[in-house]
Design a protein that fits this description.
single chain; five-stranded antiparallel sheet; four-stranded mixed sheet; 10 helices; 11 strands; disordered N terminus
Length: 327
């Protein structure tokens, strides 16, 4: 079977990615070869049954464009000729700092790439976010230029491996969100999890909100894992904002909103979880932030108070990006 079958052969993405009425929690793809890394899926796939079958022992997925095949020979043939093999991902670089870059792609302009990315992501996401038509979303790909682990044995040439970096995760964002959500779906691929990369993606989504002057947050409800990740980001971000403020200044929720672009309900819930709120000594219902408790919380959780996950000065935001969000 040719790898080009991974293009979905014109099958509408909505029909391929639609959630069944009674979804199974047992993966129907047992192993995924991503480049040369062997990964065990967490959830059932929504790859088209006529290509992958009802159950597959192994699926081969291109590390550069996410096309897929059940057969090894066409997979290896594709790796030699993949148009993204020696180029960056499609779209535009909007951020680069140290070892990481962020690329923005339009789901409508890069429909096949986005479809294959979503199909791969569904193996590790128990969420409906990836089921929407890709044409209504922007995708932000996190590229590691020296990933750990790297993907060896797939260069198939003298130019080496990872010349243009490796996509290690992404987040998606609706072009038009009536709820002002700044993120619809987020995933760091399993081989690169627990390296703080999710914090980079979350930080990027909030920095983009700041630049667009649109207050928002992730699409809710959050999954259990998603809530843990966001609570970590919100807590650390608020701690930095509070500690860096003048010592005699009384911070309000609105002050923290302006500093962080986190919505007020998330700010209040996070401060309560951190245990840093106290009632005013002279009565009244308002609560105040105990900065000493914030410092103690940051020390006990080993939070880096000086460095944010993303550097605002490392963004390159084009007018076209801004106009897309305003249309």
């Amino acid at each position: 079977m040719a790898l080009d079958a991974g293009s979905l052969n014109g099958t509408p993405v909505a029909s391929v990615l639609r959630s069944p009425q009674k979804p199974s929690v047992t993966p129907n793809v047992l192993q995924v070869v991503f480049g040369s890394l062997l990964i065990k899926p967490w959830y059932p796939s929504f790859y088209p049954e006529q290509i992958v079958g009802r159950k597959a022992e192994r699926l081969y997925v291109c590390q550069w464009c996410f096309k897929y095949s059940k057969e090894l020979a066409p997979f290896l043939g594709h790796l030699k000729a993949c148009p993204h093999r020696n180029t960056p991902p499609p779209g535009t670089n909007v951020y680069t700092k140290d070892n990481y870059s962020l690329y923005e792609i339009d789901g409508e302009k890069n429909k096949l790439y986005a479809q294959n990315l979503c199909l791969f992501a569904k193996l590790f996401l128990d969420t409906k976010s990836v089921f929407y038509d890709v044409t209504t979303f922007m995708y932000y790909l996190l590229v590691a230029h020296n990933p750990t682990p790297n993907i060896p044995n797939t260069g198939l040439g003298d130019e080496g491996v990872g010349q243009q970096g490796q996509v290690v995760g992404f987040f998606s964002k609706e072009k038009m969100s009536w709820d002002n959500n700044n993120l619809a779906c987020i995933l760091v691929f399993p081989p690169w999890q627990k390296q703080g990369l999710g914090q980079i993606l979350m930080g990027a989504s909030y920095e983009m909100s700041r630049r667009e002057e649109r207050l928002g947050g992730p699409e809710k409800p959050l999954s259990d894992l998603g809530r843990l990740a966001y609570e970590h980001y919100w807590s650390a971000t608020l701690a930095r904002a509070i500690i860096s403020s003048p010592s005699k200044k009384t911070l309000t929720v609105l002050d923290l909103r302006e500093k962080t672009y986190i919505v007020p309900e998330d700010i209040i819930a996070t401060l309560q979880t951190m245990g840093v709120l106290e009632q005013k000594k002279k009565g009244g219902a308002d609560a105040v932030i105990n900065k000493a408790k914030v410092k103690a919380w940051a020390e006990s959780h080993r939070v880096d108070l000086k460095n944010h996950p993303v550097d605002p000065d490392a963004f390159v935001i084009r007018e076209s990006s801004r106009s897309v969000s305003e249309e």
